[in-house]
Amino acid sequence: MKVLIVGSGGREHAIAASVKKSPKVDKIYCAPGNAGIGQIAECVPIGAMEFEKIVDFARQNEIDLTIVGMDDPLVGGLVDEMEAAGLKVFGPRKNAAVLEGSKAFSKDLMKKYNIPTAAYESFDDPEKALAYLETAKMPVVLKADGLALGKGVLICQNLEEAKEGVRTIMVDRKFGAAGNRMVIEEFMTGREVSVLSFVDGKTIRIMSSAQDHKRAQDGDQGLNTGGMGTFSPSPFYTKEVDAFCHKYIYQATVDAMAAEGRPFKGVIFFGLMLTKDGPRVLEYNARFGDPEAQVVLPRMKNDLVEVAEACIDGTLDRIDLQFEDNAAVCVVLASQGYPVAYEKGFPISGLERFDGEEGYYCFHAGTKQTEQGIVTNGGRVLGITAKGADLKEARANAYKATEWVTFENKYMRHDIGKAIDEA
Ligand code: AMP
Ligand code: GLY
After folding, report:
1. What ligand is nearest to the CA atom of residue 11?
2. Ligand 1 within 6 A of CB of 80
3. Domains of the chain (ranges plus CATH)?
4. Closest ligand to 269 CA?
5. Which atom of ligand 1 is nearest to the CA of 118?
6. pLDDT value of residue 149
7. Which protein residue's CA is at the shortest distance from atom 19 of ligand 1?
8. Is this model's pTM higher than 0.85 or not?
9. pLDDT tens digits, residue range 81-121?
10. Rounded to an integer, what distance in angstroms lies between the CA atom of residue 16 and that of residue 9?
């Protein structure tokens, strides 16, 4: 088989590494990919939003399966365009990707189908949002409706901050059209867990749990980022939590989408908060998490290509999804200054140290191949993943491996997975 992966981050590198293990696959392409992906796939210079070019490429190269890793092309309808051209593609159609693409849609869905989530109201008029705030309990959470690179959520401690937030989202349009509508929701407290799943329109299979670290600095200080590290499984995702989510959240979501005439095929990412009243859905994503994929996929025993095909064919009920009985930790090596301002173009050394090293992975995110070798090319540069018998061992292994690579301005958090000490 020939497989095309759409995207260019650490998640897509992890997807490519899984696809490469499949005995069914002879050739992998990635659009546009990055330097690390280029070592196991042929990268083609086509952007993830260049739908026509992707369709043409897939047709001309007789691609048997396309896996879309990123949210923007999914929400934009790449899957629909590829299907219309007769191509086989893994990911939700536009009318289902809206589960991630519109917070107002996902909140309304949860309300309608009694799926546990924070109380909320949605607004398309800033005046009404401002009036509502006068009676809202603080702190309060403001969310731009659309995709905003994970930045469209503001947690406001008091009325002043919240009013300013409404103006930022709806009047100043800091997140662009994502702020045409907004959701104002109740602030919840608790531990966060990411649960990824495969869905074929009717059946759902849950992957091993994970936890992300979104803030830039140790101790969850600093700005929100795309993710500074992950671990899997989460020791806080207990049997009780799992049973609750199976009963009230997972299948309920899949059934709700089907009932709305929006059958979901692909990956649903449940962002959960474990509150004292039980698990609540914080958000849905319509794809693998980044950097969750970097700790979940290396632990998956199944052939990813087979599972993806089962999702497309509607035969996921025949798949017994299995994960290794171990743990993995991913530490992101970023450029100093991320997520605000940082320099790039620095040579990276030590990458070869990962070759043939069982249980250690160096997933590239922002890197570029140049004549002088591989250089830094983004805020998040590499994701260093290591497995271990348990989380503590995996964490020690991952931090050891972060020493193997060097580049100027290398920055990382030193407390990825520290929460597991409290478990
Ligand atoms: P989202 O993109 O909806 O997952 O929001 C990003 C982050 O904001 C989440 O991972 C939480 O840390 C935080 N957050 C979102 N909604 C809430 C809420 N209702 N209460 C508390 N924190 C929240
Ligand atoms: N790690 C969070 C996300 O992928 O959205």
Report:
1. 2
2. no
3. 2-91 (3.40.50.20), 119-186 (3.30.1490.20), 191-318 (3.30.470.20), 327-422 (3.90.600.10)
4. 2
5. 19
6. 76
7. 187
8. yes
9. 999 999 999 999 999 999 999 999 999 999 999 999 999 99
10. 11
- Cis peptide upstream of residue 45 (ω within 30 degrees of 0): no
Pocket test for ligand 2, best of 71, 75, 212, 267 (most atoms within 8 A of CB): 212
Cα 150 to middle of ligand 1, angstroms: 10
> Which residue puts its alpha carbon closest to atom 1 of ligand 1?
283
CA distance 238 to 191: 12
Pairing mode, if any, of strands 191-200 and 204-206?
antiparallel
Rg over alpha carbons for the chain, rounded to the nearest Å, is: 21
Residues 375-406 pLDDT 10s: 999 999 999 999 999 999 999 999 999 999 99
Classify residue 101 by burial, with Cβ atoms within 10 Å: 0-12, 13-18, 19+: buried
Return the higher-pLDDT residue of 106 and 419.
Answer: 106
Query: Which residues form the pocket of ligand 2, taking CB atoms under 6 Å from any ligand atom?
Result: 150, 212, 227, 285, 289-290, 292
Has residue 419 got a pLDDT over 90? no
Reading the block at residue 228, the tokens are: 């500074």
